[in-house]
TrEMBL record:
Highest taxon in the source lineage: Bacteria
InterPro entries, per the entry: IspD (IPR001228), IspD/TarI (IPR034683), IspD/TarI_cytidylyltransf_bact (IPR050088), ISPD_synthase_CS (IPR018294), Nucleotide-diphossugar_trans (IPR029044)
EC nos: 2.7.7.60
Reaction catalysis annotation: 2-C-methyl-D-erythritol 4-phosphate + CTP + H(+) = 4-CDP-2-C-methyl-D-erythritol + diphosphate
UniProt cross-references to Pfam families, sorted A to Z: IspD (PF01128)
Molecular function terms from GO: 2-C-methyl-D-erythritol 4-phosphate cytidylyltransferase activity
Record-given protein name: 2-C-methyl-D-erythritol 4-phosphate cytidylyltransferase
Residues carrying the site annotation Positions MEP for the nucleophilic attack: 155, 211
Entry keyword annotation includes Transferase: yes
Length: 230
């Protein structure tokens, strides 16, 4: 059945000192979130997207369709996971509990078709869902209070979690509700699933699927997206 994309975009903060929430920062001529929508809705199995927005968002362009597919909006919540849960609950009621949903950060504009294809293929087979991720390449240091090195941590078996993250709608909704009820702030959807006892798959993805967080990321995203041939 059809896959829905869920895009948490209710973050108000910008770490760039200005007042533009980062999902609306302009990269390669368009807001970051437009690049995210492009990448997700290009996939033939993705039938629509729902975007969680801050209630006081004045910048949402009001898109209702993208690439001929519906774009819905809903109000987000206080934390990222609250926004994702709100979006899942605002999906059309006919979306089955067994349908896959793809949760993707509005601030990740450089998702490639090949990565999305591999993620969906893995999630089709995985019982507990799948996420894009990459193994840690750098040596990891634990800092003491004073920014001195206290220890070197083994990096073996450690991965960086990216988005999209693909789960069954019903399972993800239940996992996020459990985490919310327990008062635990999860920083990605997989963390909620893990807490619920699931073992999602790691699908190795491109390192350039970056989340724009700093002004250096913004410059890198600009470079990557202007290089791309669509
Ligand atoms: O701030 P951070 O980089 O973790 O945000 C990741 C994504 O989650 C962004 O797309 C942001 O808009 C979204 N978010 C949200 N609701 C919140 C906080 C963040 O949808 N309350």
């Amino acid at each position: 059945s059809g896959i829905w994309a869920v895009i948490p975009a209710a973050g108000r903060g910008t770490r760039f000192g200005g007042d533009i929430p980062k999902q609306y920062l302009n990269v390669a001529g368009r807001p970051l979130i437009a690049h995210a929508l492009d990448a997700l809705l290009a996939h033939p199995r993705v039938v629509g997207a729902i975007v969680a927005l801050s209630a006081d968002d004045t910048r949402w362009p009001g898109w209702t369709h993208w690439n001929g597919k519906p774009v819905l909006r809903c109000d987000g919540g206080g934390e990222r996971a609250d926004s994702v849960l709100a979006a899942l609950q605002a999906l059309p009621p006919e979306v089955p509990a067994s349908a896959l949903v793809l949760v993707h950060d509005a601030a990740r504009p450089n998702l490639h078709d090949t990565d999305l294809e591999r993620l969906i293929a893995a999630a089709d087979l995985a019982h507990d869902g799948a996420i894009l991720a990459a193994p840690v390449r750098d040596t990891l240091k634990r800092a003491s209070d004073s920014d001195r090195i206290a220890a070197t941590e083994p990096r073996e078996g450690l991965w960086r979690a990216f988005t999209p993250q693909a789960f069954r709608r019903g399972a993800l909704t239940a996992a996020l509700q459990q985490a919310q009820a327990a008062g635990i702030v999860v920083t990605d959807e997989a963390m909620a699933m893990e807490r619920a006892g699931a073992r999602p798959m790691l699908v190795e993805g491109r390192e350039d699927n970056l989340k724009v967080t700093t002004s250096a990321d913004l410059a890198l995203a600009e470079y990557l997206l202007t290089q791309r041939v669509r």
